[in-house]
Design goal:
- 2 copies of one chain form a homodimer.
- The longest helix of chain A is centred in the middle third of the chain and has 17 residues.
- In chain A, the strands form 2 sheets. In chain A, strands 1-2-10-7-8-9 form a 6-stranded mixed β-sheet, with helices on both faces.
- By secondary structure, chain A is α/β, with parallel strands linked by helices.
- Chain A contains 14 helices and 10 strands.
- The radius of gyration of chain A is 18 Å and the shape is globular.
- Chains A, B: Belongs to the serine/threonine dehydratase family.
Chain lengths: 323, 323
């Protein structure tokens, strides 16, 4: 392992503390099974429905752990982050529940629905241009002005410990899982899954699912170092961001493999989930089902846990309907 | 009560037998709650997700009770029915599980998703015009040809006893419900709900939810006798059929009231369910939420059980997206 001395890895103890801390603020999400999908894949699939979290995504776990772990002094200044998606929304939700300020830097091009949700939860948006330089510059200014605690969307030990509570619940709810599958973008959920699995169920294999068109994590794993793409284009909008040092540690040491799916395979799996599971899921979280359908030699005959990460979809614009 | 001597009312004992008989073939469906919808309505809402039944609708309960209650001799000739959709596909599903023939008469205008499902489950479709008169005429011919046991979509004591198992489970799963709400078309689910409620929880009020544009049950209740429209037009395609003698008995004696919603209110409630509950539900089963949103004076402050009756939607054709 090549871990820089200055990065702070979350521990299993952190996960236990996190779970107790966030319990009043999250949903212990339901597990669904589906005969038709089992038949189609040859596997026994268990779906943990994080799309049923109040703000519609698993990121409420890490965000709540960060927000409710702040001392009162820290909390008075609130929290701040940059995000165009579910982390912004979930951090605003958690900050709203604690009654502290939440400042979010979002690209002006972010979906209006997500901006509306941030505002509805009491978050304050500062818009930036859709470029890394503008985002960093704007965020530095906002943070300097507000003094809010920076909660990174994934490269933060509090966030990873929070996300780890999802697979902790999963292993409590379903016995004898052979495999866990989750999507990978920046690697927060996968890192939390690694942390839980190597702590309490090291026999469980972990597969990360990634869009072919944003396969930087897969290439990083093969290369042995982080590869960050500048601006990948994929319908799985939650999975465009690169790994960072903390998440790279978990991914490089504990993930069995990273499997990829094409845009069409992701859309087909998304529609199939809507049809069979009757679940509204977003494109990013259809990638696991897509890779399961594509790789029966890995999954058939196994008890496979699938993390349904989120359900915040623009219902007016579905990828299989031409408008 | 004005009950004709020759109609055979199902009893609570029939419900207990039905529940044991169908247990291997149905799902004990999950209950969802949702903070945002509770806030919006002022009620504590509990959603019983019958859309998660393997064939996507509650009608698998009554259909399975009928199919698995047949003697081997009766079963050899199979079953037959007419249905706008979910009963057809649920009866096909149940017949398929028993390995017996299933003939169904469906209006040619029924959703393609439902026709496809009937065929996938091994049912045989004969099409008719979308009117009660055409349906009954076509069915008489099909039944004469096949000799299959007629399992009426709702006016059949076996079917009503089967549907009653849904509210039986609901009352076992959620304590202290004040109100149950379900959609009303022919009245099978509502009749089963009445049967359960007056048998084991007579303090629970029952509200039926009906489209304004197919409000024959509401007008029947006010008039004191069955009013049947021949071919009402509503997006709630499962709710176009009229009450019959058995269901009229339950509706007229045990339903607290029938509330109606406009087409736009139904579409809005459907979209809201997708957005908030992350559940794919069909238009017919959005009517309860629509009437709850419309009548806060009845529901606010109450513990309200809502039966999410089905989720078989044509995903290529959503009512809020112009194509």
């Amino acid at each position: 392992m090549n871990i820089k001395a200055d990065i702070s890895l979350p521990t299993w103890q952190d996960v236990l503390v996190a779970h107790e801390r966030i319990a009043p603020h999250i949903r212990r999400t339901e597990i669904l099974t589906n005969d038709a999908l089992d038949q189609q894949t040859g596997a026994s699939l268990f779906f943990k429905c994080e799309n049923l979290q109040p703000p519609g995504a698993f990121k409420v776990r890490g965000a709540s752990n960060a927000v409710f772990g702040l001392s009162d002094d820290q909390a008075a200044k609130g929290v701040a982050t940059h995000s165009s998606g579910n982390h912004a929304l979930c951090l605003s939700y958690a900050a709203g529940r604690r009654g502290i300020p939440c400042n979010v830097v979002m690209p002006r091009t972010a979906p209006q629905a997500k901006k509306d949700a941030v505002i509805a939860y009491g978050g304050k948006i500062t818009e930036c241009e859709p470029s890394t330089s503008s985002r960093e510059e704007t965020f530095a200014r906002v943070q300097a002005e507000t003094g809010g605690d920076f909660v990174h969307p994934y490269n933060d030990p509090r966030v990873i410990a929070g996300q780890a509570t999802c697979s902790k619940e999963f292993l409590e709810q379903v016995e004898d899982l052979d495999i866990l599958v989750a999507p990978i973008g920046g690697g927060g959920m996968i890192s939390g899954t690694c942390l839980t699995v190597f702590s309490i169920a090291p026999h469980v294999k972990i597969y990360a699912a990634e869009p072919e068109q944003a396969d930087d994590a897969m290439r990083s794993l093969k290369a042995g170092h982080i590869i960050a793409d500048d601006a990948p284009e994929t319908i799985a909008d939650g999975l465009k961001v690169p790994l960072k040092d903390l998440t790279w540690h978990f991914v490089s040491n504990h993930v069995t493999d990273i499997l990829t799916a094409s845009e069409q395979e992701i859309i087909d799996a998304m529609k199939l989930s809507w049809k069979r599971l009757k679940m509204v899921i977003e494109p990013s979280c259809a990638v696991p089902l897509a890779v399961i359908l594509k790789n029966p030699e890995i999954f058939a005959g196994k008890r496979v846990g699938v993390i349904i990460t989120g359900g915040n979809v623009d219902l007016d614009k579905l990828p299989w309907i031409e408008t």
